Amino acid sequence: xxxxxxxxxxxxxxxxxxxxxxxxxxxxxxxxxxxxxxxxxxxxxxxxxxxxxxxxxxxxxxxxxxxxxxxxxxxxxxxxxxxxxxxxxxxxxxxxxxxxxxxxxxxxxxxxxxxxxxxxxxxxxxxxxxxxxxxxxxxxxxxxxxxxxx
Length: 150
Known about the structure:
7-stranded antiparallel β-sheet, 12 strands, riboflavin reductase (NADPH) activity, Flavin_Rdtase-like_dom, FMN binding
């Protein structure tokens, strides 16, 4: 599956002891009407209980300058939020990371079992993008930069 290039996101949610987040490449838009998105999370993820308990998430689209955040939020057992600036999404209070190229605030509507992962279907409540920023892309195990053609 590494042959398929993808954008890199960090999914965030409010947790009982502070914000919770994890790096996620399995995100996509499902429907425009109603506005639905989907993302997957490993059954073994330490973030899973917080995602389930809150039901509120923000999908943060990382910019190419945020490679360090992709790595930081992918690690387990570390302080993922060290030196991370963020603010709560007005719609649901989940963390929006500073400097992202866009974000989607959503409420989880459904959980679907899928092998060693769970797929979450969530209804979009609010979103924002920064058209001036460029995305962080992951392909064949390395980060890539897009070469824009005008």
